[in-house]
């Protein structure tokens, strides 16, 4: 199992506040636990600091034409730790940044077939040279892996 401490000396150093302030674009895919591509999507993110919180206004467009929106409120806790909330997040997301990496974990109420499933996300994000952030999230329910989300965030278009 990975440990966030293993990334403490990696460059470039990740600051969520610096990376996500302003406009960010992302492209992602969802693969089921068998590796089958089930969905792809694009995200535009408007990020800004408000009252000591990083607010991320995310707009999703899926390959099937569906649209979604999520607004995150992420609060720095000091020492690289963060907490976050959003309307579809159950409780509070928690994360820690060290070096170029963030481990971000949360439970989400995910709509599936007309019902809401409570699933767990374990995200690992890695800042790369050129202001690209790679995110791999493992999604589980009752400890069983349901799938993987892979995202690439970019600031290149500013």
UniProtKB/TrEMBL annotation:
Any single Pfam family the record assigns to this protein: DUF3833
What the entry lists under InterPro entries is as follows: DUF3833 (IPR024409)
| Listed name of the protein | DUF3833 domain-containing protein
Organism of origin: Neptunomonas antarctica
């Amino acid at each position: 199992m990975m440990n966030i401490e293993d990334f403490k000396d990696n460059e470039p150093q990740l600051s969520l506040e610096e990376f996500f302030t302003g406009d960010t674009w992302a492209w992602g895919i969802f693969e089921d636990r068998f590796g089958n591509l089930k969905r792809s999507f694009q995200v535009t993110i408007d990020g800004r600091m408000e009252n000591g919180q990083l607010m991320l206004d995310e707009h999703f467009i899926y390959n099937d034409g569906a649209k979604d929106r999520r607004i995150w409120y992420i609060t720095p806790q000091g020492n690289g730790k963060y907490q976050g909330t959003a309307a579809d997040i159950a409780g509070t997301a928690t994360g820690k940044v060290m070096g170029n990496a963030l481990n971000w974990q949360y439970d989400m109420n995910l709509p599936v077939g007309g019902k809401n499933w409570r699933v767990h996300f374990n995200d690992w994000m890695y800042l790369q040279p050129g202001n690209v952030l790679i995110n791999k999230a493992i999604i589980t329910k009752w400890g069983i892996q349901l799938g993987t989300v892979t995202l690439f965030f970019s600031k290149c278009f500013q």
